[in-house]
Amino acid sequence: MQPTDPVRPLAGVRIVEISSFVAVPLAGMTLTQLGAEVIRVDPIGGAADYRRWPVTDAGDSIYWAGLNKGKRSVAVDMRSAAGQDLVTRLIADAGVLITNVAGRQWHSYDTLVEHRPDLIHVEVSGRADGGTAVDYTVNAATGFPLVTGPAELATPVNHVLPAWDVSCGLYVALAVTAALRHRDAGGAGARISIPLENVALATAGNLALLTEAMVNGETRPRVGNSLYGTYGQNFVSSDGAAFMVVALTNRHFRDLAEITGTTNAVAALGEALGADLTDEGERYRHRDALTGLFTVWFSSHTADEVARALSGTSVLWERYRSFAEVAASDRVTRNPLFTELDQPRVGRHLAAGLPIAFGGAYPPAVAAPALGDDTAAVLSEWLGISAEEIDRLTRSGSVATGSDA
């Protein structure tokens, strides 16, 4: 057996993806970046996410390009018998399907396993009962918006990060790699289901948010930008810059007190309150009083002065920055994770590859296709369909290629 490329450990693996939005597209892109050949199959005209915002001035989706880098694109009329047959043959050839288009009998596990007995079939659904859901409805159903935002706020706050989609996408990629390992070792294929809601519920349970309610009978309070259970808080400098400061350990806390000139005041506060402030729980309990002490120093120093002082300590900190500031910063421009990418229809920009370095090297970003760019090539390479037959399928509307997709 030939050794695998450490930067492309899934080289030689073929995967068909039928998807839209975030979770499964992210999974497919991650598997692509690990070396697999991933074919995203879309309906002619594109799935629901093909023109999703943000878009360029010409209306091309920057969002779609961002989640489909490195894949190949096939456009098929999946409502037609001929189109379904072609996709079934592609899946049978690949042996792996990832999808969040649930409830379609023709590409269900039970149907497809008749064509490929060792099929790996991963289906993402909204809820475990088969119901539909998206990240933001799952988030609402699992408690997080009621503990997000300022403590005095009485309304729910949805965070902008689609955390469950992202987590679910990575679980899909993990499930595929685990199933491939099992199959390569002589085992069978796999029927895998990953409900988005269960990803959120598992996370809430693993982080003790649900267990806290079960065991202590308490619901996590809303604490704004404080860090629950330890000391963390945002501060504003004299020139209006915002900083997040975290003191997890006693050393962090001592350094924070020292640079803010409050060591004696903190000791006096602890004595007055009868609190042992070497305990992080006590620091959390008395966070407002501590913040009042530290705020005096932050509000009387400029952002540059704050940054210089914090840089010389063990304190964990960062200045709040906009996406535009981050995009122009050394974190991106001098980060080997990012390489220049000329993305057709979007333009030239720095694009992130896989955020896993193999031997110090990050697999670089590869441009996303346009809808149907690879229809003819994939049908020819994977299924051995002749150019004449592809032309007939195109004229009949069963498939579309390139600009016709």
Structure notes:
The chain has 405 residues and is α/β, with parallel strands linked by helices. The chain folds into two domains: 14-206 and 336-404, 3-Layer(aba) Sandwich (Rossmann fold), CATH 3.40.50; 231-319, 2-Layer Sandwich (formyl-coa transferase, domain 3), CATH 3.30.1540. It has helices at 23-33, 62-67, 81-94, 109-112, 135-141, 163-184, 196-206, 209-216, 250-259, 263-273, 280-285, 287-299, 303-311, 323-327, 330-333, 375-383, 387-396, and strands at 14-18, 37-43, 72-76, 96-99, 120-125, 190-195, 231-236, 242-247, 316-319, 338-343, 347-352, 399-400. The strands form three sheets. The protein has a seven-stranded mixed β-sheet, with helices on both faces. A hairpin with a 5-residue loop joins strand 7 and strand 8. The longest helix has 22 residues, at 163-184. The radius of gyration is 26 Å and the shape is elongated. The model has no long low-confidence stretch (mean pLDDT 96). InterPro entries: CoA-transferase_III, CoA-Trfase_fam_III, CoA-Trfase_III_dom3_sf, CoA-Trfase_III_dom_1_sf. This is Dehydratase. It holds the Pfam family CoA_transf_3. GO terms for molecular function: catalytic activity.
Quick rundown:
This is Dehydratase. It comes from Mycolicibacterium litorale. The protein is α/β, with parallel strands linked by helices and 405 residues long.
List the keywords.
single chain; 405 residues; alpha/beta; Rossmann fold; formyl-coa transferase, domain 3; seven-stranded mixed β-sheet; three-stranded antiparallel β-sheet; 17 helices; 12 strands; CoA-transferase_III; Dehydratase; CoA-Trfase_fam_III; catalytic activity; CoA-Trfase_III_dom3_sf
